[in-house]
Amino acid sequence: MSGFAIKTRVQGLARDDSGATLVEFALVMGILLLLIFGLIDFGRLGLSYVMAQKATERAIRSAVVMAPACPDVPATNVRGTLVGVTVDVKFGAACLIDAALCADPGTKVCTAANGSATSNAIWAKVSPLLPSNATPANLRFTYSFDRNIGFLGGPYTPLVTVDLVDLQFQFVTPLGNLAALAGASNSS
User: Fold this and answer.
1) pLDDT tens for residues 29-67?
2) What is the pTM of this model?
3) What residues have CB less than 8 Å from 96, skipping those under 6 apart?
4) Do residues 72 and 108 touch, judged by C-beta distance below 8 A?
């Protein structure tokens, strides 16, 4: 083959655009599919967020009216150490009269994985609302003392908090990996 024939063939290939549409379609389709699946993923993320909020609301309502999920939560408010008070304060006095009237038993924290009857019952109520990767270890109960609630000798009435902890969202598309490449510290 002569140099002229090679040059003519190369020029002919340079002018031939019969496969260009297919290449452009492949590039645009990849970006379009990434956008569509990204929208689906973020819709799933929004749904998971709302369902987690509802599960937490249901868990806190149950935890407030049921027996404590954590062990060692006292049943009654016991007398604290009153310093400088000469009058004997009778049982039935509000804990807010003095900061040390009712003893502070401390904050009790546990997860639904502790196996108590209350935590098992609450987990059974909220688990259908949570993502499939949620475990009882993700549901944390906190019982903390508040001197503005309760009275001396009466039932211990703690502030009850329920949190979902360490629950990771699972992306279907590689958006989490792309976010990590872009510098995100927590891609999930």
Assistant:
1) 988 988 898 899 889 999 999 999 999 999 999 999 999
2) 0.74
3) 147, 148
4) yes
